[in-house]
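pipeline stage [seq->struct] | target=glutamate formimidoyltransferase | organism=Urochloa decumbens | residues=332
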Amino acid sequence: MLPSSRPQKCCCRLEFPQRNVEAASTMLRPALACCKLYISEARNAPALRAIERAAAELRPAAVLVNAFADDSYNRVGYTLVSPLAAGGGDPAPPPLHRAAFGMVAAALEAVDLGAHAGAHPRLGVVDHIAFHPLAGAHLDDVAALTRAVAADIGDKLQVPTYLYGAAHREGRTLATIRRQLGYFTPNSPGEQWRGVPDASSLPVPPDAGPTTPSRSKGVVAIGATAWVDNYNVPVHTADVAAARRIARAVSERGGGLRSLQAMGLAHGEGVAEVACNLLDPATVGAEQVQERVRQLAAEQGLAVGEGYFTDFSQEKIVELYMQSAEAEASQQ
């Protein structure tokens, strides 16, 4: 299985042969895009293997370059990379579309949201799917791909599906649709999200799929944006309310760092975490976030740990894809 049981400060990836790394860097790079899928499961190894097998069916056209599992959150994030367009005039959907759809279908088959519990909020078995342009790709093209994948998930898999970012006609943000659907409020003691949200109908009509959520699947948010870094900072306290105050103060919404979103969450025994989305990491980076969280925690008499990314950088993701493509080509 690709992810380890509880990686905290590293990502997990397939190992590619290194003998052709220099050649890989000189290959003609197609326009690339990546898809990040966040699955509400990290403890069920057979389920994760089934999801990863679905991704492997499209290799080498689409490559799973990273998996990050968190046991406390009971959540795993996968990163797929592929050329944006199918080659050779193939009329079928591009590989990234097919790989993402296959992973979603496998997750819905293998995971029951009604049996799920974790310290991270979620809307469904497949909580969130984010598409990002990489080398040579344009956001408009990625947005069109996102809308096509969303339509397939909604219509073929019968899951209420919500668009955000460039894929949504009005540019609705992920945070907006999450608030509208009650994403940020725990539904179980101990700062946990457990089972299926108690909703027989949805407060906001979905962009695709049925208007009533499935008890076993939930709903999914899917969007297209420029690159986002995910960076989490541990706070040494069992007081989740304190972590939430820090998260509020550090975020743009709370008057803090520009282009930063943050949540305060429980993260194991005696530890909380400020989980951050860096929407413009070239402007506000992880070092600034780490220092500001440290300052805010110190004001409450709390210490913080070293923060960590849950994925590789854009550049590293492209490098891993090119290494994989070169390795596959050398074996043909």
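stage status: PASS
auto-comment: Confidence is low (pLDDT under 50) at residues 1-10, 13-26. The CA atoms of residues 86 and 93 lie 7 Å apart.
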